[in-house]
Structures are given as structure tokens and as C-alpha cells.
Amino acid sequence: MHGPASSGWLLVALCAVTGAYCLVRMRSGAGEERGTAGGEALMGFGMAAMAVPAAVFTPPSWAWPVYAVVFGAAAVPALWAARALLMDRRDAAEIHQKGPRAGAHHLHHLVGAGAMVYMSVVMAGAPAHAHGQGGSGAPLLTGALLLYFAGYVLLTGVRLVPVAAVAGSGAGGGGSAGWGDRPELARACRLSMGISMVAMLLTL
Fold first, then answer.
1. What is the DSSP annotation of 133-146?
2. What phi-psi label fits residue 99: left (phi over 0), alpha (psi between -120 and 50 degrees) or beta?
3. What's the pLDDT at 185?
4. pLDDT < 50: residue spans in the chain
5. Helix %, strand %, coil % for the chain, to 5?
6. What is the pLDDT of residues 151-163, one digit of tens each?
7. 123-152 in b/e burial notation, b at 16+ Cβ within 10 A?
8. Sequential DSSP letters for 19-81
């Protein structure tokens, strides 16, 4: 997980800033949106902690199982929210009324939490001297997660462009949305976490 110090600190900063913005979104959001922002904040800070260069701090052996338990617990709400897409047609219709991307976002959060559990388990089983050298995880699972998050980054980047353009064109209009209510910033944070996930998976 821990690569070169310079890239490691850049990854820490990116994830920490993303987590901090998600906390801002928690304050301005309500209900389901607030819960989603809280889950993303946990992901951001957790990724920042895992990306700290080993030369600065090497986590004790018990830290990785703790990470696995924490992110496993974080996956439960996402699994509960996404269950409609998997087995309950009535709830699936309700999600469709809210928007076709609502359930997909829950599934994405579930995959992200699962990836964090996977990386934590891999790091817990890897020798201390092998951290960050690659080859510790299951190649097929690592490759599948890499493909998923790389595709997510590309898709989110494409979707971010028109959102940012619309937000910019309306900047001179009436009232402006607060920092926690801007959809382009929320999407940019998810893009940042996707990029960070790709970078972390590459070190396995």
C-alpha cells in the first residue's frame, strides 16, 4: 500500500481533502444524502490513513484487521440500500422513481467499501518488508477492481464536464449554492476517490 514518499503524501492530501469536503456536505445535507456523505468521508479519511508512507509510519499488525472491520461495517448500509436492485422489485421501482443513478451509487459505495476490506486483508497477510512492493493480492480480484475503478474514473470524468459547465454558466445568476450543495464538487470528490483507489490497488 505504501509507495514512494512523494506520491504517498500527494495521495494522503487528496484523500484527506476529499474526506473533509464530505464532512461539509454532511452539514448541509439531510436524510439519505447526509448518510451518503458520511460514508464517503469515512472512505476518504480511511484511504488517507492507509496511504501514509511507510517511511513515516508503519501501522501495527492489529491496525489492518481494524480497518477491515470498520470498512466491512461501512459496507452494511450500502448493501442494505442496494438490496432493492438485487432482489426486491418493489423497492427497485421506488429507486427508479428517485432516479436511475440512486441505486447505482449505493452499489458503487458497496464496491468501494469491499475494495477497502480486500486491501486491508491483503496488507494484514503481507510481510512488513513487502508492503507497497506489489504481488500480495489475488491477481484476478485486483485486476477486476482496477478495471472497475478505472472505468468509473473515466465515466465520472466525462459526466463532470457538462455539470461544471452548467454550474459555471449560472454563476452570475441569482443565489449561489453553498459549498456542500454543489453537485459538481461532490462528483469531483468521487472522481478523486476513484483515482486514489486505482493508485492504491496498483501497489498491491
1. SS--S-HHHHHHHH
2. left
3. 84
4. 89-93, 95-100, 129, 171-176
5. 80, 0, 20
6. 999 998 888 776 5
7. bbebeeeebbeeebbeeeebeebbebbeeb
8. HHHHHHHHHH--THHHHHHHHHHHHHHHHHHHTS-TTT----TTHHHHHHHHHHHHHHHHHHH
Grid coordinates 474514473 are at which residue? 153
How far is the C-alpha of 135 from the C-alpha of 123, rounded, in Å? 11
Residue 137 belongs to domain spanning = 5-202
DSSP structure class, residue 169? H
* Residue recorded with cell 489492518: 64
Helix (H), strand (E) at residue 147: helix 139-169
- What are the pLDDT digits (tens) for 17-57? 999 999 988 887 666 677 788 889 999 999 999 988 887 88
Report residue 194 as a C-alpha cell.
Answer: 476513484
